Amino acid sequence: MISLDFMDRVEMFKDLTDEHLKAIQEAAETAEYKKGDCIFKHGEPAEYLWIVTEGEVELRCESSEAVQQGTCEPVTFVSTAQAFGWTCFVPPYQYRLSCYCASRHCSLIRIGKDRLEQLFEKYPEIGFAVMLYTINAVGTQFQELQDEIARQRGQEIMNKW
Amino acid sequence: MSEKIRTLLRQTEAFRNLSDGEIEQIAGFSTIRKLEKSQRLFREGEKASSLWVVASGEIDVRFELPARQSSEAQTLSTLSETGILGWSSLIPPYKYKLSAYCISESCEVIEIKGRELLEHMKKNPELGYRVLSAMIRVVGNRFEHLQATAENRSPL
Known about the structure:
The complex is a heterodimer. By secondary structure, chain A is of the alpha+beta class. Chain A has five helices and eight strands. Chain A has helices at 4-9, 18-27, 64-69, 113-122, 124-159; strands at 29-34, 38-40, 48-54, 56-60, 75-79, 83-84, 98-101, 105-112. In chain A, the strands form two sheets. A four-stranded antiparallel sheet of chain A has the order 1-8-3-6. A four-stranded antiparallel sheet of chain A has the order 2-7-4-5, with no helix packed on it. By secondary structure, chain B is of the alpha+beta class. In chain B, 36% of the residues lie in helices and 26% in strands. Chain B is built from four helices and eight strands; from the N terminus they run H-H-E-E-E-E-E-E-E-E-H-H. Chain B has helices at residues 2-11, 20-27, 114-123, 125-152; strands at residues 30-36, 40-42, 50-56, 59-62, 75-79, 84-85, 99-102, 106-113. In chain B, the strands form two sheets. Chain B has a four-stranded antiparallel sheet. The A-B interface holds A 65-66, 69, 71, 89-92, 120, 124-125, 127-128, 131-132, 134-136, 138-143, 145-150, 153-154, 156-158, 160 and B 63, 65, 68, 73-74, 76, 87-88, 90-92, 97-98, 121-122, 125-126, 128-129, 132-133, 135-137, 139-144, 146-147, 150-151, 155-156.
């Protein structure tokens, strides 16, 4: 089982008490992958929140249209104690990127969205912490998308001057 | 005026699931501001201290270009009654990434102090969870819409 010390290092769970971390720990299940294994694919229903416990995973933008438009980072790496898959809380509740194990071995924990929502009902502090992290993450991505669209459209306007 | 704030907040998706008492608490640190046509609500790069809900009229969210007056061509989205803007007030580094302009004859907006809202949610995590979950749904839907618009848009 993942230690409380490790759970304490996960930014998403910052400021939570040992009782909260223990509840999350009990809801989590472990998953092991080797290099190149696909963990989930872009467009699949987002049913789990994931945390890397060992190794590194690669989040890959596989929508060629989005890459071409510059609205999706081609590759992002996620390493130990980082959480991903928070799109399970964001409409349309699908993974926006595909995920692969990028190191020789990847150890992850995953927590089912339904199980998490039960925890949020019981411990609203966990719900608030996870939602605060998620709004930061989705808000930042939204701002980056706006920036990219503004940059492209600004360029088009200036080219017409 | 405060009844108007309460009514509008109740209709806003982010606050729709709150009780009358909880709406009252948020209305306690909210005020109404009036704008005239073309008046700027905030400018990109400014410190984002408030979240805004459109009470009446229409607000354009625009990017700025150097040495050029703001125009419709710089609009990324237009918000009308109960539309919410100013997410940057809840997200580090708390700076507006775009500008907002009133584009109708006049506009009214509810100003909610971002820091006070965050503090209130921290003290009341159950309320904070419900408000943030609803806000995430709003941002998620807008993200999808903006991405689809970007992917389908033909060059100007």
